[in-house]
Amino acid sequence: MKAFRVLSVATALVTYALVVLGGVVRVSSSGLGCPDWPLCHGRLLPPLDLHAIIEYSHRTTASLASTLIVLTAVVAWLAWRKRRDIVIPAMVALGLLVVQVVLGAVTVRLELPPMIVLAHLATAMALLAAVCLTATAACLPQDVLNARIALKRGSRGATPRPMALARAAAAGTFLLILSGSLVVGSGASGSCGAWPLCGGGFSLAFDGYPAIQLLHRGLAAAVGVLIVVSLFALLNRYRVERAVRTTVALTLAALAFQVAVGAAVVTLHLPAALRGLHLALASAVWAGTVVLAVLADRLPVTGARADVTDHARQPPRPAREVVLDYVSLAKPRIIPLLLITALGGMMMAERGWPSTGLVVLTLLGGALAAAGAGAINCWIDRDLDGAMLRTRRRPLPDGRIAPRHALLFGIALGVAAFVLLAFWVNVLAATLAISGLLFYVFVYTLWLKRWTVQNIVIGGAAGAVPPVVGWAAVTHRIDLTAIYLFAVIFLWTPPHFWALALRLKGDYARAQVPMLPVVRGEAVARRQILLYTLALVAVTIAVVVTGALGLLYLAGAAVLGGVFIALAVVNLRNRRQRWSRLLFDYSIAYLGLLFAVMVADRMIGRL
Q1: Rounded to a whole number, what is the distance in angstroms from the first to the last CA of the chain?
Q2: pTM score, two decimals?
Q3: C-beta neighbour count of 551 within 10 angstroms
Q4: Looking at the domain covering 304-478, what would its CATH class be?
């Protein structure tokens, strides 16, 4: 079974690559790069022409995918004939492969007729789903499958709501991809010069090509909501299952970036070739919803019934206490530092104070996004919070707020943040803010935090987004200075957070969170703190060479960085906890002061 799992997963990955390359062929207009089939310009190898090479790469990948699909079907039939959940999708994939090859040949021979191209895409997506079904079934342990079969035989109830939602989300994603293909095929891709509505703001345009584009965007909004609701329902029902948590995180991340790429292509006038990335992300969302639908059907329920029961026992409480509990879900202690960096990004971009109205709206949107991320984080991590002494009195593990209410609260804050920033600031700032929220919640909290010792290193990207949001709010674009601001916070996060983790090592060990001091030990964590501090200070000083910042900033960065390095060295040599606390407290002051020095230098430079 292990070898077959590797084969089925490899088949799924190569098939996904085939679908992505098919999208690149279409958006680059390379469909006739090789006008004959199966040869290319009558030759086995293509000429040195970009379109011919793109089309030939697609055909080569198709040959590899075809070989793997046939091999998977043969092995499934010979070795796993009694596993219908493996054999049926494997044989369906084989049948779809035949249809796909025929459609591909017809597409080239008839010179890309739109409806044949659409059928080709639909079959490709069905083929991707079939190989994903095979791989998922092969990766599920047999005892899990047996338990689920026994549960089904003993139950005559209706289909569980999360399972029905998962299937609906997969079906909606399939329809959405086809509607996107119709937009491209009809020539309506460039008919809307604004986002999310064609006319910009709240105005609509319902004539001709803009109507086609608006219908696709409306369907995308409806399906997006359905996907998010279904994934949260699955996460709530199967949250202890690592496979579900990981797939939900990756699917939501792909969905967020798909929306961001679609908006960027329209609003920033990026190259049309990025539509290939748009389709690649859509295919990833499609594969994720298919896999989750299978998992919902096969995995035993690990629901949150205890959450609801425990909350039901709570007597009514004063409104003031309830409000304070909801405020605590938003993690208000973290938000001010995020807003300081966002304001710093705005003032850096403006070289002074931007309009007060823009500042208020941007910071309010940023605060709502950060609060939404905190609330959803509390919902996901309520099992970990209950195991840690520092967090076990939070509203969710203590049963003072129902989990579903906390989740709805977080989602509402995130939606409000996006709407406010998109319509009253700009779409780029809104997209960046919501991407930071989704990355923090689903990539860091749901996946990295429980899986790898590098969780805070990679997850630090979420906290580095606010200054880029501030920069985009003023300039409507991202440039190297904004990326520098991102890099500063990205490198600052590990020493800042590991200093806290040294003090809370016992709590993280109790909750089985793989933080660096727990997994590698305190000595390694202290050395890593020093190394990241050195890298941070080097980057903050090196930026002066670019001319973006001047001598005032250089002096301030050198002094602040020197103190940071000195504390990191003392923390390495002296293992007493008070130095870790001092390092943690100073890291907060360091970031605020560094941004203040940046802003002061830019303002003086403007004068």
Answers
A1: 70
A2: 0.70
A3: 11
A4: mainly alpha
